[in-house]
Amino acid sequence: MTLEEVEDIVDEAIKDLPEEFSSKLDNVGFVVDAWPNDFEMESIKAHPSNTLLFGLYRGIPKTKRLSSYSALPDKITIFAGPILMISKDLEDAKGRIKKTVMHEIGHHFGMSDTELRKRGI
Fold first, then answer.
1. What is the pLDDT at residue 115?
2. How far apart are the C-alpha atoms of 77 and 17, rounded to whole Å?
3. Beta bridge partners of residue 74, listed in sequence order
4. How many percent of the chain have pLDDT more than 70?
5. Intra-chain end-to-end CA distance of the chain, in Å
6. What is the pLDDT of residue 10?
7. What would the mean pLDDT of 56-76 be, rounded to a whole number?
8. Are 10 and 84 in contact (CB under 8 A)?
9. Mean pLDDT, residues 8-36 taken together
10. Number of domains in the chain
């Protein structure tokens, strides 16, 4: 699967969001990269040799923004390499990509990893 094909799946996941979320998804950009770099791994205190990072949210969650909020767009990065490396087949990869998009969007809305795991995201 190419990075462009992963981008298409990310776009599809965003388009499939329920209106209640898509209408509130603002000031956030989506990027697909092959693999996380050292800085990205260090930013979450992960060790590259024993952590697979599927996605990364960088920004200020909506729940922590003040009414005068003005900043560069938040950024959600989806890492194709780790997802594709563990996927069994194309359908598995698509599901993992979509789940990762949803997980990172959850962070944009202020949800913690623990809350997202409880919801199966």
1. 92
2. 17
3. 28
4. 97
5. 23
6. 97
7. 83
8. no
9. 91
10. 1
Rounded Cα–Cα distance for residues 53 and 39 (Å): 12
**H or E segment to which residue 12 belongs:** helix 3-15
| Residue 70 in this model has a pLDDT that exceeds 90 | no
- Please, what sign has the CA dihedral across residues 42, 48, 51, 52? positive
Domain that holds residue 13: 3-118
What pLDDT score was predicted for residue 48? 65
> What gap in Å lies between CA 115 and CA 29, rounded to an integer?
23
Q: What is the CATH number of the domain that holds 26?
A: 3.30.2010.20
Output the DSSP codes for 67-120. TT---SPEEEEEEHHHHHHH-SSHHHHHHHHHHHHHHHHHHHTT--HHHHHHTT
Size (the chain), residues? 121
The pTM for the full model equals: 0.88
Cβ contact 7:34 at 8 Å: no
Strand order through the sheet with 74-79: 28-33, 74-79, 55-58
pLDDT at 26: 80
